[in-house]
Protein 1
Amino acid sequence: MASKRKRVEPKIVKGAAIDRNKRVSSAPDGLYDPANPGHRWERPLQAPGRMQVDFEERVDFRRLHEYRLARTKNALAKSKLGAILVFDQINMRYISSTVIGEWARDKLTRWCLLTGNGEPYVWDFGSAARHHKLYAPWLPKNHALAGNVGLRGAINPRVGLFEEAAQEIKDILVAEGVADMPLGIDVVEPPFLFALQKLGIKVMDGQQVMLEAREIKNYDEITLLNMAAAMGDGVYQDIFEALKPGVRENEIVAMATKRFYEMGSDCVEAVNAIAGERCSPHPHNFTDRLIRPGDQAYFDLIQSYMGYKTCYYRTFTVGSATKAQHDAYKKARHWMDSAIAMLRPGVSTDQVARMFPKSTEIGFETEMSAFGLNFCHGLGLGLHERPLISRLNSLKDPYELKAGMVFAVETFCPAKDGVSAARIEEEVVLTPQGAKIITLFPAQELPIANKY
């Protein structure tokens, strides 16, 4: 006769009760540091499909939320600030993982408060606050509030909305024990600033804290940036095929914008299209100019996927190319390759800046007047993050590059014909071994579209 086995109840393991240093595999919810970027440098940088699937890990958005919040809290703890109040939509998204679209970009009517002792508070436009309570469970229910301080003066300040909002913030600072510490702010309407100061709140610059937090991208951020770059690869194939005499710059912009939104872009911020005699100096815009045979034409694709930006230049000629156009392109590519070869963790930014030509080499009198033509800038939720490397600033204020940074490298070289110019940009991820390029449309040699 078989003996009866004693029933053993399954053990319920709670993450909060686990020693995180032991890394017990049976309770993964409590066993990772949310501020750890989780890089997997031994693997290729992935650019997966946009659908959710159950058979492979793609982007883990909850992990992304926790990482960004933890990075902000760590940066805040290292500062002299007790809390940070942000109005910039990039910073607000980074901290709170809330967004209501491109409409809000220039309104200054959404804001977010994070104290060193609490969770994010979000003041949003009307019904959006109720939406967050339903669809953003990572925010405490009472931390999503309706807010309005007048839509940049449309409601007169004498109504008192600034004072009411400032008092709400002061009450939270008191409740969370940081009212006697400085409050960091990124950008703000002057009446809001004055209302805070009237309540005795010491206001300091908070933007540097946010830029420090956003500097190192985690695994999910790098994946999203790579996915956004892959979308740019596809749009450049469309542009390459469409570049024919008779096509207008604005038609290329329209085509590129439509294609990005079809692929899942959440904002096409700008598509620069510059051709022919407009190439030098660089105007940073587009017109209705007709493309002509032999034109040099360059484009910049600035768009975002899940908030993560591209800044992606490519230069083409139409039908044929002259020696002057080829020579300018070779110079721009040489500067590009020299800068990328320098990009390694531990390298100082002034060393990279010296790889770029002086302003006088490209026909400008000062580094200020040539700024933005040969430089590097960080990419993330923002278009210009750290590192920002140029001869204008990096020779005076160098700092060390770190693995996990993602940035764009841009070069520009005017041609000797006086009108053409080459403009190249590569987006790179800084790995422990050096820079990994994620913008893959061919650019080692000057591409000739619809060659005769």
Note: The chain is about 30% helix and 20% strand.
Protein 2
Amino acid sequence: MADRHEMWKSLGMNIEQHDVLCSVLPGAVGDVFMSQKNRPKGMEFWDMVVADVHGIRPAELIEEQKKGRKVFGTFCVYVPDEVIIACNGIVTGLCGGSQFWVPDGEAVLPKNTCPLIKASVGARLGKTCPFFRIADMYVGETTCDGKKKAYEILGEDVPMYVMDVPQMKRPEDIERWAHEIALFAKKVEEFTGVKLTVENLKKAIHIINEKRKAMQRVYDTRKNKTLPISGRDSLLMTQISFFDDPERCATMCNKLADELEERVKNNVSVVDAGTKRILVTGTPLAIPNWKLHNIIETTGAAVVCEEMCTGTRYFENLVDENINSLEEGFKALANRYMKTNCACFTPNTGRIDDIKRMVKEYNVDGVIDCNLKFCCLYDTEKFSVGRALKEANIPVLQLETDYTDTDAEQLRTRIGAFVEMLNK
């Protein structure tokens, strides 16, 4: 791995603290990923990226900035990547999945704030994440009250644009979201200096659709009784996809899918026959949050699907590419993005429908619904989710956790008992 210290210094990062973070990461990656047996060869790409997660992609982004391109850091799957790409901008996700960043976040946020929000703010204020240092603009959204107030802090020294996501899905709400996308497009045009046209928007829509199709191919292989890839590896692929160049991401996902489809044909599985199949739902699992998947898959079960933003919500549903005007394009984007069933919506029966559908599609034995502490949206919604699954005779285990490892053994005990119950 190349020495990136000069690059990090140029970004004004806290090198001493960042070195502490970097010293921990290899061990975590080794314990979670490299300890697995019979992994697909195609995972070598994502292993390489995560081994140098604060080096490879940040270096690429800096080189593109030298060419005049703008980098937009995003927090949510509601931000339409297509608009940014159409204006020659670059989209990158922003880190927020480690306890390492939480203390710096708690310096300005209440302790009873969701750890994902505290970690995101801490990664910026503590100067220990290059993606937060590189982004020319942050793009937020109104899916969570905690995030909305955090954006005010993050926007003090970096341009911050917040998209107003409707909280219902009536026809007038979808129309309003199309208008919000149009307003965002004007801001992106202004910031990049590139005029948005129907042609470049159609091209960008196609690029992101191809990425979604490629990721769907990987997930489709997980529906088989022969499980060709672990949940941990699938999660890593999805997490990295938020940061990677979309065309390269599509290429590598398709390459992995080719291998996985061949594995299914040849009955090559990463788990023993009869291993119980788990669907995970709840609060998104931002990189490098691998705790839940690691515990589940080292307790005798396999994660075969994630109904969450770091899962199926990210790539399911395509944008209509048959557009002849920008207005049609904004409507097509609004129609697709409003199919995402975030817990911020009321009512949100679509999420329950999705979970029940995926239980059938992925041959799921049980559901684990897990929310991060102080994530009131998913914590509140767990009542209706749990009730609906029990009424449908779908076994469900509901958990709450944070980024620390202090509850790891408790989680392992509860998950182990749930798997044992499924086995009986």
Note: The chain has a mean pLDDT of 96.
